[in-house]
Specification:
Layout (H helix, E strand, L loop, with lengths): L1 H23 L2 E3 L11 E8 L4 E13 L2 E9 L5 E9 L3 E9 L12 E12 L1 E3 L3 E10 L2 E19 L2 E15 L11 E8 L3 E7 L8 E9 L3
Antiparallel strand pairs: 1-8, 2-3, 2-14, 3-4, 4-5, 5-6, 6-7, 7-9, 9-10, 10-11, 11-12, 12-13, 13-14
Length: 230
Amino acid sequence: MTRMTARTAFLAIGLLVLFACVAVAQEYTLQEYMPQAMGSKWTVQSTGGRGDETLTISITKTMDFGGTQVPLALTQAADGTPRSGSLELVSADTYTIYGMLFGGRPGGGGGGELTTVPYNPPVEFPGTLTIGQTVEKTTTMGAGDRQASVTIKLQLAAVENVTVPKGTFENCLKVLLTTTFAANAQGQTPPPRTRTIWYAKGVGAVKTERPGFGDRPATITELVDYTIGQ
């Protein structure tokens, strides 16, 4: 009886270890958490950084990169002024960052101008990740005579529940994106900057934390409402 009990206990422990390994190795497909349908729109509440304000992020057009149509996720202030944009393409196999848009300035009628800053080559990550997996890529950011070598590290840090003004979203992917620039001509290396994003399945980013710089505090954006296009 003692021998059978020990054998049963051994088998039970083995099964627990097996199940634990399977759980740790679970893959998450980023495409399921990053919807990019035309007409999608997210309203977020932003605190810190420039102060408290309401912003909208919408996908209404694409930009061409060597024949590939990449969705533009444009962030705008309440008066319609463009603030920034991201150029990312998510498929079942890859998550590719083509560049960013920066430098929106208020203008007549709430207009503004953005400068496209491409990555050359685009930064390509796997389309599926496991918890704790980290992928690092180096590319060149900018165009013409204003270019800089940059390393971007993507990590799926955890799966967490997140509560924001829109409500509580369960099992969100906690993704860390760390950007590190190479040393400049003076040999100075800017400190790495890590952006933390929580993605809810079928919804997109529900919360984002960006580090501050200088006298500007960190910026936190939280989801207020959203519509996913068809």
